[in-house]
Design a protein that fits this description.
This protein is of the alpha+beta class and 250 residues long. It has a single domain, classed as Aminohydrolase, N-terminal nucleophile (Ntn) domain (Glutamine Phosphoribosylpyrophosphate, subunit 1, domain 1, 4-Layer Sandwich), CATH 3.60.20. It contains 6 helices and 10 strands, in the order E-E-E-E-H-H-E-E-E-E-H-H-E-E-H-H. A hairpin with a 4-residue loop joins strand 5 and strand 6. The longest helix is centred in the last third of the chain and has 19 residues. It is globular, with a radius of gyration of 18 Å. The chain starts with a strand and ends in a 13-residue tail after the last helix.
């Protein structure tokens, strides 16, 4: 009932997961990420323990492929499960249980994995992967959105559309970007709008946040505020409205 892409950007080491489904709030149960550790998507008949347990195993040094026998060995429901992951080194692993509803399957490539179930056909994962690999010149978040749209255009979830999510982590435990459309007629379009809103201010403010290396964060926001003002002025000058629905609210 879902398709997703899990990836590591080879240029930055950043990790991301994007997912879409004809299911409510898919972003609440599928993606699990931690900077410098890995990214996991658990779907089909979701077992949400795979996410946090998998990240702990990866952090302890387990290779991605080792998670498959660990999870399937302890879970009698594994034939109904699907999960895939990429670690901080770009190594991947994927599992599709034989009771997942057709079409179900996955594709693994260097630093990226695509998996889906209850899809219109194998072309959904194939087109998602192809579009991702064709957009390597784009920022990771944009690349993931392009890939997901290609999967949707190839048929997507055969039941239709309802929710989608995109999460990107850099080198911290918390996400650099986390956006969700939980109940929307066109959730991928809503994700693109939210990403545009985030680019107007939120992602610039994110640069000021505390990190492991700098627990104080950036307390002088002068440069960030100037950059936000510069971008807003350029947008207004070119006649482009804000992507935010709250832009004109008092």
């Amino acid at each position: 009932m879902t398709y997703s892409i899990v990836a590591r950007d080879p240029a930055t080491g950043h990790l991301g997961v994007a997912v879409a489904s004809r299911y409510f709030a898919v972003g609440g149960t599928v993606p699990y990420l931690r900077g410098r550790v890995g990214a996991i998507a658990t779907q089909a008949f979701v077992n949400p323990t795979y996410g946090p347990d998998g990240l702990r195993l990866l952090e302890a040094g387990a290779p991605p492929a080792a998670l498959i026998p660990i999870f399937t060995g302890r879970d009698d429901g594994h034939p109904n499960r699907q999960f895939h992951l990429i670690d901080a080194q770009g190594r991947g692993a994927a599992y599709t249980g034989d009771k997942c509803i057709d079409w179900a399957g996955h594709l693994l490539a260097d630093g990226v994995s695509v998996a889906g179930n209850m899809l219109e056909g194998p072309q959904v994962v194939a087109e998602t992967l192809r579009a991702y690999q064709a957009a390597m010149d784009k920022p990771l978040a944009e690349r993931l959105l392009i890939a997901m749209q290609a999967g949707e255009d190839a048929g997507g979830d055969k039941r239709g559309k309802q929710s989608a999510a995109l999460v990107v982590v850099r080198d911290q435990d918390y996400p650099w970007l986390s956006i969700r459309a939980d109940d929307d007629a066109d959730p991928l379009a809503e994700l693109r709008r939210l990403y545009a809103v985030a680019q107007e201010r939120a992602l610039h403010v994110a640069e000021t946040m505390a990190t492991r290396e700098n627990p104080h964060g950036l307390t002088d926001r002068t440069h960030i505020d100037a950059r936000i003002a510069e971008l807003e002025a350029a947008r207004i000058a070119t006649g482009h409205p804000s992507a935010s629905r709250m832009a004109n609210k008092v």
